[in-house]
Every structure is written in C-alpha cells, then in structure tokens.
C-alpha cells in the first residue's frame, strides 16, 4: 500500500519546529548576554540533565506514574459518570450541577484538605490529578454519547434493541472521537495535576525539583525539569493518540483526506 503524501514527514515538521525554537533560544541567550540565573542557555539545561541523568529519570518516573494514575481514574470514572447522566435525565438534573460546582473550586485550594485526609503519600497527588482531569472526560464523553445519529437510534429501537445494546453498539462507537478528544485533554491536565500535588506536599517528583530549585535560585535545574515535563507531555499525548488509532484505524489521516476533498 502506497503511503499518503506527507505521511512520512509527520514527525519532521514538529522536530524542525522544536529545533528552531532551541536555536532561537540559544542565539538569544548568547547574543544578548542573558544571565544564567534568569534564563539559562539550552546547553546549560542539557548539561544539568547530563550531570544527574539517573536522578532526573527517577523524578520523572514518579511524576509520570502519578499522572497516569490520575488519568486512568479520570478516564474510567469520568466515562461511567458521563454514561450515567446521558442515560438518566434524573441523574443529570441531580448530579451534574453539583459536579460543575465542585469543578469550579480551585484545586489548589482543595489540596491542603487532601493532604489532611490522605496524608503526604501518593494519594493526595493522585486525587488532585484526578480532580483536574475528570471534567474534560465527562464533558467530551457526554457530548459524544449525545451525538449518535437520531435515525440509527430510531432504527435500533424499532428492532427492539435493549438500552444496554443500543449503548454498546450505537452510542459508544459514535462517541469514541469525542471520548478520545477528552482523554487527550485529560492526559495533559493529569500531568498538571501531578505537578500541583507535588508542589503542595512531596519529597519526590519533578514538581518537588522545581520547588526546591526555585528556593535556591537554581534556574538551570528549574528549566531542566520544565524541559523534561514538556517531553513527557508530548509522549503521553502521543500514547493516547496511538491507542486512538489502534481502536479507530479509519480515522488515521482523516484530516488530510478532508482537506484534499475540500480542495477538489
């Protein structure tokens, strides 16, 4: 099978953009003589990571596990909650306003309570990652579940399909694009939640690295942790997209086909 035009360059353009950003950063810090305690050069950041690779890997692994734990909880419970409120009008009126109200409370304000309730281990960080990520899953999943074609639903009802079979065979497949859109947003938010949790109470993780380095004005270490976080975010989102393409292979390359159709 002949690959689609532009498919082989899918990774080159982002890499070229990242390389251009790093070169501009290096040129700006060197050309304008910016002090390292304000903005270190990319070489200083790479040297910082190269001096302590094992330690940075350990901190990154801890943050990644916290983010993944919060994301998985948000994905499972958020999808179940979305199904519940779309299948029951009573539950939607009873629980959804409360859910929106709770989501409006800043998670940083809730974090000290979570430390009191769950201690200083991984549990409060997992809870914060979950709370920050779950709203995106619920909103996008509920939107997708309500987007099933009306004529298909009517046909399934006329064929005496049960509510469970209609949900499984019609609504969930129709909702998958929206569900995975919510998953991708939730993954990035779970990473943010993990960092917020580590800011509040932690002796490990990239959030703790940033907080400790900020206190000692170790700017290269702060930038090193931020660079690792940026790479982690890209990798985790790419992992979700890989699962999406695995489950919905027909959507691979869909934007390109749509653009070519519009041009025609």
Description of the structure:
- The chain has 264 residues and is an all-alpha fold.
- 80% of the residues lie in helices and 0% in strands.
- The chain has a single domain (59-246), classed as Orthogonal Bundle (MetI-like fold).
- The chain contains eleven helices and no strands.
- The longest helix is centred in the C-terminal third of the chain and has 38 residues, at 163-200.
- It is globular and about 75 Å long.
Determine the mean pLDDT.
87
CATH architecture label name: Orthogonal Bundle
**What name is given to the CATH topology?**
MetI-like fold
Number of helices: 11
Instruction: Work out the radius of gyration.
Output: 22 Å
Q: Quick one: how many beta strands? A: 0
The main sheet comes to:
none
Please summarize what this structure is:
The chain is mainly alpha-helical.
Topology:
Blueprint lengths: L11 H20 L10 H10 L1 H35 L1 H16 L2 H12 L4 H23 L4 H9 L4 H38 L5 H10 L3 H29 L6 H10 L1
Helix pairs in contact: 2-10, 3-4, 3-6, 3-8, 5-6, 6-8, 7-8, 8-9, 8-10, 9-10
Defining traits:
single chain; 264 residues; MetI-like fold; 11 helices; 0% strand
